[in-house]
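Incident review: delayed structure delivery

Summary: a single-chain prediction request sat in the queue longer than the usual turnaround. Root cause was a stuck worker, restarted by the on-call engineer. No data loss occurred. The affected request and its eventual output are reproduced below so the record is complete for anyone auditing the incident later.

Affected input:
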Amino acid sequence: MNPFSARTVLSRAQRAGLIVALVLIAVWAVLRPMAVLQTVVAVVTVAYGAAIVFRVVLVWAASRGEHLIRVTDEEARAIPDADLPVYTVLVPAYREPSVIGLLMSHLGALEYPKDRLEVILLLEEDDRETIEAASAVATEPHVRILVVPESQPKTKPKACNVGLEQATGEFVTIYDAEDIPDPLQLRRAVVALRRLGAEYVCLQAELGYFNVDQNRITRWFALEYATWFRSLLPGLVALRMPIPLGGTSNHFRARELRELGAWDPYNVTEDADLGIRLARSGLRVGVLHSITLEEANSDFINWIKQRSRWYKGYLMTWLVHLRAPRATIRQLGWRGLLCLNLFVGGTPLAALLNAVLWATTILWFLDRPPVMEEIFVPPFYYLGVLCLVFGNATVIYLNVLSARTMDRPDLLGTALLSPVYWAMMSLAGAKAAWQLIVKPSYWEKTTHGLHLPSSSKEAADVS
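Output delivered after worker restart:
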């Protein structure tokens, strides 16, 4: 039994503590309402400021580029085929008939001997369209279709666990159905993991997008991912902090992954949770300098679905790993605790709070109600102003910096328009908080293939 399972997000002790806290706050609010408001504002302001400083420190720590693991093309190709281990590639897909053909083409470009490569397509029992599309193109002997029996929860991590049970590879990785991995990525991972030794059990490759220029949303998404994988994650590595993994292109030693209990089928960001569990077990994760291209979400509604699921999973992971605070501190240390609170929990909470903070700022400039002068006592008022000015400017600067690291000066305008993207994040944060209460393990499906012309999608769907 996984002690960190999100099957029940809050433990009994957490639920009891929450109820007691809410009752005490309610009583206090009746007796001294202004004191409660002042305290809430103070706590939120300090936490928000700490989260901003934390990200600045991560970017600074990553700026030297020393903590990216690099394997040259020559080093990757130097290993004789006979010395390469069996490598399992898990591909969970649900309602993806339009991209299965492209997937086979992209995986076929991997420079890895077919007799040492195992590709397992994980398809849901009720998804006949994708099963039929995959059956038509998955004809090579190293590719097989594994139908995941109908059961709850119907999530990507559950499918991956089914695939891991039958995987024969020494190493295992996950690709999504629309991914275009670096052809040498598997070889690079083998070289890097052998070089690093047994302490490292996972490498996270960088994720980028092949449809950056499709529309404004994809441009924002590309800048965000560049910041995430080129600055924030390497910064966490540099500071010896836990690494919330991405959902694809993470490369594991299969034996250690099984010993850890693999993925939590009830957590909708099973990758982030697994990264924290690896750190709690004293195992290390590295960031591999190798890019997998994905499809950036180009549709507003589809984007909200995907982002709210990510935020919900981050909140899940945060709450689950705070069930036993003493054990968390003992296993993660103060650095890991900072990461868990300011990065894993702080990311969705900041998105959720942004809308409230912007609303109060607008109200102040429009009407200057006297009650707000009482709520924002001087020290926290000035700290709040600093967060408003310095914090927003910092995040915009990080996006500008990402445009530079991507060598895409044409994305400068998109970087400067980032506040509009933050408003989208706030909507996703609100939806995530609501779903965490009413349907925590519900996996909201993200539609892929939106970059394809309509004619291509129709042709793929009937193939």
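Verification: Residues 325-367 form the longest helix (43 residues).
Action items: add queue-age alerting; document worker restart procedure.
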